[in-house]
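Renewal narrative, Specific Aim 1. Our central claim is that a sequence can be written position by position from structural information alone. The example that follows is taken directly from our test logs and has not been curated for this report. It begins with the structure tokens describing the chain, in the order in which they were read.
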């Protein structure tokens, strides 16, 4: 098996902006700080942005998951250190990774709130240069670059997409619902310069759950279990917007990925949009010509899952050329360090080798213009077995990390099996 994850995350390291900004903006860059309680944060324009624990729990027991801020001392080094990240990938048998941002938020909302947009653009460009050149460039063939958008202006956004595409980024993160962030919805033509740039440059628009800074909440007193359960509903809403917006008509080469949205809901969703079209398009004005909405959705929208046995079991109702797998390292839904074992449970004897290969790596390679085999000496060196053999001495034990009475952090190993044992 070869595994490529199209949804992971980076906890940005303290040196991110060093040497990447014009001199006049250096003093305005976000600063990495340690607060009085020992937790870390990024300070920017009077704000402090902490790393929430659920964003970086790889290597910790589930009992310690939570929403409290953390310090880097409590994080597994693979969250923020590129060399350690690759070791963690090797130990997990994962060849490639597309990493979404953390502290700037999914689509750069932090920088978009900057009043001086020249400063905002400098920060976005510096972030993208770090992401492409260092995070993805340090270990060629191991990462799929995904640029941060200059989302406040569609023309500026389009120019940055073209600039980063020239540097090798064929993915850009974008909001699942920009109207929730105060910008025009995708039902307007406001974003057309952006769609056009992505279409021209073969850049996939990645809409990650939560990228509207808004989640589905049933009631104010509902337990957090309700919020976590309903998180993928944001993506169902995004899919509905995409289908009826006209974007896919106007830009026939555009591809949109619904990141971390799962796939089990898609067969019913496609049934529903076709029924809606047949029943109502006469008066709503929708026109798909001689095609059905489900056909256009299936052809143009990329879908992804971490753990979705129902979705794989119903693959006959999906376009298997557009289904991809995710690891979600180092978030709380991640399957690290047992990803190969967990995803293999989806593949019974009825799942063909071709379907397995498309899900696990071929589709990601195709859609994101990603060629790890050439960079790493062929497929044989890229399999789960080959990567884990390189990392046989790498420690992946689950460890508890808690603050003791004097505020220091102690680690104790918990006896859990390691991959391959």
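The sequence written for that structure reads:
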């Amino acid at each position: 098996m070869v595994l490529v994850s199209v949804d992971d995350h980076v906890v940005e390291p303290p040196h991110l902006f060093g040497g990447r900004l014009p001199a006049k903006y250096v003093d305005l860059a976000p600063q990495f700080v340690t607060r009085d309680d020992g937790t870390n944060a990024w300070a920017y324009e009077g704000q402090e942005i902490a790393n929430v624990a659920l964003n970086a729990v790889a290597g910790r027991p589930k009992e310690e998951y939570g929403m409290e801020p953390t310090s880097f001392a409590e994080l597994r080094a693979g969250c923020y250190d590129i060399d350690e990240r690759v070791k963690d990938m090797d130990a997990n048998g994962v060849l490639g990774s597309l990493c979404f941002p953390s502290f700037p938020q999914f689509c750069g909302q932090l920088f978009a709130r900057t009043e001086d947009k020249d400063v905002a653009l400098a920060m976005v460009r510096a972030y993208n240069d770090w992401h492409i050149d260092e995070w993805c460039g340090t270990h060629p063939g191991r990462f799929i670059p995904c640029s941060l958008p200059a989302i406040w202006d569609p023309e500026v956004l389009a120019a940055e997409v073209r600039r980063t595409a020239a540097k090798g980024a064929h993915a850009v993160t974008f909001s699942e619902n920009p109207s929730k962030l105060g910008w025009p919805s995708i039902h307007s033509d406001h974003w057309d310069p952006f769609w056009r740039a992505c279409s021209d440059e073969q850049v996939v628009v990645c809409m990650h759950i939560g990228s509207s800074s808004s989640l589905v909440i049933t009631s104010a007193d509902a337990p957090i279990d309700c919020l976590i359960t309903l998180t993928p509903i944001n993506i169902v809403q995004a899919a509905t917007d995409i289908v009826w917006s006209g974007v896919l008509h106007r830009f026939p080469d555009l591809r949109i990925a619904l990141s971390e949205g799962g796939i089990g809901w898609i067969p019913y969703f496609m049934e529903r949009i076709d029924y809606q079209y047949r029943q109502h398009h006469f008066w709503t004005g929708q026109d798909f010509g001689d095609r059905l909405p489900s056909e256009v959705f299936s052809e143009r929208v990329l879908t992804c899952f971490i753990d979705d046995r129902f979705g794989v079991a119903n693959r006959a109702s999906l376009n298997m050329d557009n289904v991809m797998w995710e690891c979600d390292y180092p978030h709380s839904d991640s399957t690290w360090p047992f990803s190969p074992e967990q995803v293999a449970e989806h593949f019974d004897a009825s799942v063909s080798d071709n379907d397995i290969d498309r899900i696990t790596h071929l589709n990601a390679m195709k859609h994101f213009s990603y060629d790890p085999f050439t960079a790493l000496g062929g497929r044989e060196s890229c399999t789960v077995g080959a990567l884990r053999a390189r990392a046989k001495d790498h420690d992946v034990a689950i460890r508890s990390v808690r603050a003791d009475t004097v505020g220091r952090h102690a680690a104790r190993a918990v006896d859990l099996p390691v991959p391959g044992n």
